[in-house]
Amino acid sequence: MVVLSKPLIEQFSATRNCKPTKSFPTIPLIDLSKPNSKNLLVDACEEFGFFKVINHGVPLQVISKLETEAIKFFSLPFSEKQNAGHPSPFGYGNKNIGLNGDIGWVEYLLMKNNPDFASPNFLPVLDENREIFCSAVNDYVSAVKKMACEVLKLMADGLKIEPRNVFSRLLMDEQSDSVFRINHYPPYPKLQAFDGEDMIGFGEHTDPQIISTLRSNNTSGLQISLRDGSWISVPPDQNSFFINVGDSLQVLTNGRFRSVRHRVLTNSLQSRVSMIYFGGPPLSEKIAPLTSLIRGGEESLYREFTWSEYKTNASNSILADNRLGPFERVLSS
Questions:
Q1: In the chain, which residue ranges form alpha helices assigned H by DSSP?
Q2: Is residue 323 among the annotated active site residues?
């Protein structure tokens, strides 16, 4: 269990959720070392857009090293963390999520996916720990990116499409617009007074990129939405990774894979630390359904757009918006 000393997020406006939730069916669990993993991945992406992977190849020491450094940063006094710079978009953020009024009981670091990942004000805050922190981030992102690409290749195998790197090449491109985020959700002890109600740590949304790989400590809070709109809790597992299908992958598969809507609820006693790699395409990449995945008699569900166009649209929306809406085609009857 991770407990941070005296976490501080000031002047937070509580947002409570009263939607009923229910017990989770069985989260798809996929062993990446097994021969049938490619087919299980396709099934999970079609039904949930979400799954857990084991035998993922990311060394546990790489994971624990970064978590240790993240805890050190979030344990700093609030005034010092603020010196890391307001996220524009990269840097330290506190309760404000995006630019359109979304808030949550969360503080975070948002970084670019390259060795020069930090905002100009960020590294001085780390002081003598900067080299250790940078090394931990780069080692972690490199390992998780490799895993994400392997998962995407297995998805292509399961869909029986060529080339095998049709999805993963977008992450491997030197111009890939991938980002990395570390979230810290401090405990909220007063939550115990609100019987039957929840406080939002991070509001419901889908991820706009191709794929998201998430690892958290052993504190609960993550929920995903099923097709019927009900919310189900995801049991934490600090040794595994959870994978989300993003909006862009939903488009590339012409809606066959489902971009999962998810959120994080606060915990009254325990801190939650999560680390998410968002695998995105280059800004100039054109996103449209792959012709090889449009079955006979089907129509393309989405018009072609660039990642830059979609990213701009997403940044101008609130979290809960259906950001794919403006890109959906009106199908002939």
A1: 37-47, 60-74, 78-82, 122-126, 130-159, 168-172, 247-252, 307-315
A2: no
